[in-house]
Amino acid sequence: MSLFQTERIYDNTVLLYRIIQEEKRVEFIITQNDNDAIKKITEDDIISLSYNELLNDTIEFHQSFPQIKAIISEQKELMRKDKKSADNQLKILDVFNNDSNFLFKYYINRFRSIFTAEHSYVSNIEWPSSKCKTKYRIDIFLNNIETITDPEYFSHFYTTAENKLLSEPDFIIQEDHAIRRCVGGNIYIKGRLVKFDVSYFSLIEFFDDFSSKLSISEAFVNKCKCCNNYFFGEKDASYCATSSCQKEYKRILKNKKEYDRTHTPDKQPIKAVDDIVSTTKNRLRKKINNDPHLMSEYLDEAENVKQEIRNEVERRKIEHQPFNDASMKNNILNIKSRIRNVYLDLIDRFKTQNN
């Protein structure tokens, strides 16, 4: 019988879920892929995660996935040799058991069921081409998991380029037609019947549904520019809600406001003259040993030129004239020249007084 002519389904693990947008949380049920098992589910079997908790679980799993992938890559080779070696390799996954993270719990169970069934199937067929196909199917499975658990795609998974995700051929798990694939579940929660959806394989169905709903509700996952952690926020938000990152964000905002305040077109001429006055004052203080009388003369002239430029700016505002034309640039150059002359005159007088 051809590899793809027989009905085949996953055994053991399947994920049921429902997304509660108004409460920003998701409810999960990890169960057996069997309608009879679903009928026995109670409220105690539900794993409820906020959007933030789900994001944290996804990040944690994705960080460990390269190690898991390496173990499974070796498993692909052992699968075609002997079952004992394959089973021993699967036991290494025990170190990743993490009941507090639903993704670890789901995927570790899924890996066990997939590889056990795949090995059982492969060991009973003789066609080399079919044995190669099982390796190809697992590669697709791993690629999809790696993509959909990447925080970069968490809030816009549904827009992921087609070449990032590949269609998942059926895995050879069981050829028993008596076992049915579940199509979702109606679970009684506090006396009320609630509909759960089902996600198979690498959870493409769930992540596609979830990220689509996030997009509709305009919730986005961003990467904090301060701590480099991912977080939920408005589109293009750059800083998460932690106190240190918010402190940095406020500092940057303050600096930006100050920059904007001094760099608007009408403020540029005033700032240019202030800079000239301030720089010259510092240099003069050193040259004349901070002589109080000479410094007073300089400060009087400095205040005069600053007032002149402010008056000129106000006049241009009233008459709707530009603030950076050739005439204004000449005004600033003239002021610079005047300040320079005052500076040189005061230095000469200081030298004369002290000879």
What is this entry, summarized?
By secondary structure, the protein is an alpha+beta fold.
List key phrases describing it.
single chain, 355 residues, alpha+beta, 2 domains, five-stranded antiparallel sheet, two-stranded antiparallel ribbon, 10 helices, 55% helix, disordered N terminus
Topology:
Elements: E1 13-20, E2 25-32, H1 35-39, E3 47-50, H2 51-79, H3 83-91, H4 102-122, H5 128-148, E4 185-189, E5 192-199, H6 204-216, E6 220-223, E7 230-233, H7 243-263, H8 268-287, H9 292-318, H10 326-353
Antiparallel strand pairs: 1-2, 1-5, 2-3, 4-5, 6-7
Shape: elongated
Query: What is the mean predicted local confidence, pLDDT?
Result: 80
What kind of sheet is the major sheet? 5 strands, antiparallel
Run of helices and strands: EEHEHHHHEEHEEHHHH
Low-confidence stretches: 1-10, 173-180
